[in-house]
Amino acid sequence: MSSQAIWWMLAVTAVALLSCVSPAALSVQNFGEMDVDLDVESERAQFNSTCKCGKKFTRIVGGTETQVNAYPWQAALFHKDINSIVCGGSLITNQHILTAAHCFAPETPLTAENMVVHLRDHDLSNPSETNLVERYAKTIHIHKHYDRPTIQNDIAIIHLNKTVPISSRLLPVCLPSSAKLKYGNEEAIATGWGATSTGGDTTNTLQEVKVSVFSRKDCLNRTAFEPIRITRKMLCAAGLDGQGTCHGDSGGPLIYLDQEQNYDQIGITSFGHKGCGDKVLPAGFTRVNKYLRWIERHTTEGVYCSGFTFP
Ligand SMILES: *[C@@H]1O[C@H](CO)[C@@H](O)[C@H](O)[C@H]1NC(C)=O
Ligand SMILES: *[C@@H]1O[C@H](CO)[C@@H](O)[C@H](O)[C@H]1NC(C)=O
Ligand SMILES: *[C@@H]1O[C@H](CO)[C@@H](O)[C@H](O)[C@H]1NC(C)=O
């Protein structure tokens, strides 16, 4: 089964389940607001001042720019028994991958035991193309308030059992600023090996799709997401240039070029529509800057590259 099918299946079942939930029940679902950190002594993140996060890798081959490893933080989460990609993810420290919680939901075949994380991959059908880095999970932290019916807090962190060698081709993405409150009408990029057409298979080479982020109001106004509740801890975006957002795999990054010309991961691909390639219907993303303290608490053993700060 392609990762896209899983993404859609999740969205469809979410809609089906939600229609049985009363609006009163929905209004108390925003668990994240209660996620207050009382542990003032908690450890802070470690940074490596030698490396800079969020720098796209560029190389010219025969006069044209190659896309191989252009997004050096992109991860592919493989199920090793069926040898198939299930989700995307992103490198955030020298040993942690950020992804979506629903990648490990009961209906998804992926577990810490059967997963192999590919980094520096590009063409999935050609393992010799890049110096593929394979890693296994030590632990997976799934947000304890991840709620499947309402797709709240769809965020997880994979702690790899071995660090990765940081280089220009294998580099963490930056985390976004907590101060950036509005992304409405801004351009962002979703990357993944997702399907290129409705019902299509996953592609072999990493795809990127330019999207426009909607303000929450504009997103809510697109009735297509009823009755999934779009909260302040989500972002929604739709493709530009006639491209659909189905290109991005679940768990993969939504990135934004900040004022210092670094790529910040502002979203995690979370849910979408059954159809694909629709410019009008936006896809839903977990809003990363609402989870910065949660991410920091679960990555204290890792080393970040400099280029951003935690709140
Ligand atoms: C810090 O980053 C440099 C690359 O810029 C890398 O060679 C070095 O191993 C990194 N150190 C750690 C602890 O990750
Ligand atoms: C990491 O996990 C894999 C798969 O379980 C195992 O083969 C490997 O030896 C482990 N590596 C380390 C450094 O623990
Ligand atoms: C929703 O969108 C429609 C059509 O684009 C527009 O006419 C309407 O004013 C919008 N409503 C709100 C509340 O933004």
UniProtKB/TrEMBL annotation:
InterPro entries tied to this protein: Peptidase_S1_PA, Peptidase_S1_PA_chymotrypsin, Peptidase_S1A, Trypsin_dom, TRYPSIN_HIS, TRYPSIN_SER
Tagged with keyword Disulfide bond: yes
Lineage: Eukaryota, Metazoa, Ecdysozoa, Arthropoda, Crustacea
Reaction(s) catalysed (UniProt annotation): Selective cleavage of 103-Arg-|-Ser-104 and 124-Ile-|-Ile-125 bonds in Limulus clotting factor B to form activated factor B. Cleavage of -Pro-Arg-|-Xaa- bonds in synthetic substrates; Preferential cleavage: Arg-|-Xaa, Lys-|-Xaa
One of the record's GO molecular function terms: serine-type endopeptidase activity
GN (gene name): LOC108675349
Entry-linked Gene3D superfamilies: Trypsin-like serine proteases
Matching SMART domains: Tryp_SPc
Domain of life where this protein originates: Eukaryota
Signal peptide segment: 1-27
Alphabetized UniProt keyword annotations: Disulfide bond, Hemolymph clotting, Hydrolase, Protease, Serine protease, Signal, Sushi
Name under which the protein is recorded: Acrosin
CDD domains (UniProt xref): Tryp_SPc
A Pfam family matched in the record: Trypsin
